[in-house]
Amino acid sequence: MTDTDIHELDEDTVARIAAGEVVERPASAVKELVENSLDADASRLEVAVEEGGTESIRVADDGHGMTESDLRVAVRQHTTSKIEGLEDLEAGVRTLGFRGEALHTIGSVSRLTIRSRPRDGSEAGTELVYEGGDAVSVEPAGCPEGTVVEVEDLFYNTPARQKFLKTTATEFAHVNRVVTRYALANPDVAVSLVHDGREVFSTTGQGDLQAAVLSVYGREVAAAMIPVEVDEEDLPPGPVDSISGLVSHPETNRSSREYLATYVNDRAVTSDAIREGIMGAYGTQLGSDRYPFATLFLEVPGEAVDVNVHPRKREVRFDDDDAVRRQVDSAVESALLEHGLLRSRAPRG
Ligand code: ADP
Ligand code: MG
After folding, report:
1. How far is the CA of 94 from the centre of ligand 2 (A)?
2. Where is the DNA mismatch repair protein S5 domain (predicted)?
3. How many Å lie between the centroid of ligand 1 and the Cα of residue 211?
């Protein structure tokens, strides 16, 4: 028998394979960059993409920024300012990021430029240019306080990944969904989205959720939304402490789930339990394959929910899915009932 040729992959190959796990498509890069801006306490956040994000992605914020040394460290693998160790994770992280891999992985599969100036009164900022995972230059640069990240030619050096990209329209739809999720969750941040030079939406950053819904989904949908606001004492038993947000009149519905925007502890998630709870409340009021608009925020104690799921996936798992489903159903149902929007239905067990 001959030896199998088992050998170590070079660093570059490892990095690119790993990158594909985190950054699957332009929308995943947008998600990471938007999360970084929100974690940096931005009050303004501009996302501009070209060709669905395949040509370029630009995310600009007015957050706390980075010094030159921060910036040099930030693009390295597994570097984060957000957690110290496992204890912090187990206690339940509230920042959106914590893995310290986004900038590094995006940088290894694109041409990445970051300009940043900290909010500490620094005279100038720093521009770092990265290409395929290597720093090309780090130089002082004039820029406003905050951070601008530009990602060009995503996957230029990973043709296999590039091949799996869909049409511009599809890639942009994913980007739009990501930015919409964060705009709705952060009405106090002025969020704008521009595609190929055309503004898709912008929120004022000065309104509440209702105002953000108006900016993002338009007048017709905004007018059809009713509030949900239920605390623990009015929920059936289960892990959820409170449920709040907006859901639409049953008549205002769509054929896609895309308008179910759900959050656990301010993190945008998908969850079968939450979705089934919402759908259960509407019952037969919706036609088959019709979905309402819903923007719902659940507060759940850290230990009842696992946020440490795969970075690319937004599914969240609860220790008791059934209870969560009943709690969401009950909260949405009482909101609809209060507004006379449900035909009475037989009580369920
Ligand atoms: P993570 O978000 O998991 O910490 P990232 O690779 O996304 O990892 O970012 C690394 C670090 O770079 C962050 O922890 C943060 O300190 C810094 N950083 C990234 N983006 C920004 C930004 N827009 N503004 C300020 N700091 C940032
Ligand atoms: Mg991050």
Report:
1. 13
2. 213-337
3. 29
In the block, tokens 């992280």 appear at 93
* Nearest atom within ligand 1 for CA of residue 98: 3
Q: Do residues 49 and 180 lie in contact, with contact meaning Cβ atoms separated by under 8 Å?
A: no
Cβ–Cβ < 8 Å for 226, 262: no
| Distances in whole angstroms, Cα of residue 104 to Cα of each of 60, 66, 212 | 18, 15, 32
Q: Which of 32, 36, 80 to mutate to test the pocket of ligand 1 (most atoms within 8 A of CB)?
A: 36
Q: State ipTM.
A: 0.98
Tell me if 326 sits within 8 A of 235, measured CB to CB: no
Question: Cα dist. 299→223, 226, 248 in Å?
Answer: 26, 19, 21
Report the candidate in 133, 81, 92 with the shortest Cα–Cα distance to residue 112: 133
Query: Is 281 near ligand 1, meaning CB less than 6 Å away?
Result: no
- The angle, 0 to 180 degrees and rounded to 10, between the axes of the packed helices 168-185 and 26-39 is 20
List all residues 6 or more positions away from 30 whose beta carbon is below 8 Å from its beta carbon. 47, 49, 53, 57, 59, 175, 178, 179
Nearest-atom index, ligand 1, CA of 63 = 24
Rg (the chain; Cα; Å): 22
The percent of residues in the chain predicted with pLDDT above 70, rounded, is 92
Beta bridge partner(s), residue 59: 47, 149
195-216 pLDDT, tens digit per residue, is 999 999 999 999 899 999 999 9
State the Cα torsion 94-96-101-103 to the nearest 10°: -140
pTM attached to this predicted model: 0.89
- Can you tell me which residue has the tokens 């037989």? 346
